[in-house]
Amino acid sequence: MKNFDAVKETDNIINFIKDYYQKNNLGGAILGISGGKDSGVVAALMVRALGSENVIGVTLPCHSKEEDAIDAKLISDYYDFKLINFDITKTFDTFKLELGNLGNFNEEELKNSDINIKPRLRMATLYYLAALYSAITKKTYLVAGTSNKCELFVGYFTKGGDSVHDIAPIADLTVEEVIKIGEVLKVPEKVLYKKPNDGLSNQTDEDKLGVSYKAIADFIEDENSVTKEDAEKIIKLHNNNLHKFNIPTYRKKM
To answer: Is the Cβ–Cβ distance between 52 and 181 less than 8 Å?
Structure first.
């Protein structure tokens, strides 16, 4: 994080959002509020750029922890934007019930599918609400993404889920840089310094990845700055998830 000016970058991101909305005649933003630092920082940035009246946060519980909803409310209260609770637990349960018609599967077989269907249901909900509020207000609402650079580099996101959005305010910021931006924006400490987890698997992000976000950020800056073991893990994660970034498309031969 050499020469990172958090105050300057905060202003740059806010201006980036303002300029994009003005140039494209856009109105508001909808984003999922997980109760973690990434969504907290993005919410703060969108409020600063668009005004709290044009930002809508959505909590999307699905067999989720109550603490996440409490922390999401903390963010919406602090920045004074509308917060909607849209519980998708029954939707998920109905999906699982229908799956039973295909056969009997054990927990290990279902684990990855169960984890990834949740962000896909959440993203479908966010786009539904974005379209709804665009119709209600007569101004276009975008879905704001909340992924950071470290997550993206190692492919720690769900295709068709949290990878889908219309604007990405923090996608070029490492976790440490996101925190620095959050400090400038005065994101409540309980949220900003909370240990990141996906809210899906009952594990922290770093437990699942097997490597720290700091190591990932250091590797991005200088591949030789981390241990050989961490470098191998990061390279493997990055390479194994390259399929998430590009869709192989057949092109007609002319």
So the answer is: no
Asked whether the beta carbons of 141 and 29 are under 8 A apart, the reply is yes
Provide the CB-side half-sphere exposure for 149 (13 A, CA): 18
User: Nearest to residue 183, comparing CAs of 15, 16, 10?
Assistant: 10
pLDDT in tens, 215-233: 999 999 999 999 999 999 9
Gap between the Cα atoms of 41 and 178, Å rounded: 7
For residue 106, count other CB atoms closer than 10 A to its CB: 7
Backbone torsion region of residue 141, taken as left when φ is above 0, otherwise alpha when ψ lies between -120 and 50, otherwise beta: beta
- pTM, 2 dp: 0.94
pLDDT at 218: 95
Q: Which two tokens stand for residue 159?
A: 């295709």
- In angstroms, the CA 25 to CA 140 distance is 8
Tokens matching residue 67:
């603490």
Q: Which residues of the chain have pLDDT under 70?
A: 1, 197-202
3-state secondary structure the chain: CCCCCHHHHHHHHHHHHHHHHHHCCCCEEEEECCCCHHHHHHHHHHHHHHCHHHEEEEECCCCCCHHHHHHHHHHHHHHCCEEEECCCHHHHHHHHHHHHHHCCCCHHHHHHHHHHHHHHHHHHHHHHHHHHHHHHHCCCEEEECCCCHHHHHCCCCCCCCCCCCCECCCCCCCHHHHHHHHHHCCCCHHHHCCCCECCCCCCEHHHHHCCCHHHHHHHHHCHHHCCHHHHHHHHHHHHHCHHHCCCCCCCCCC
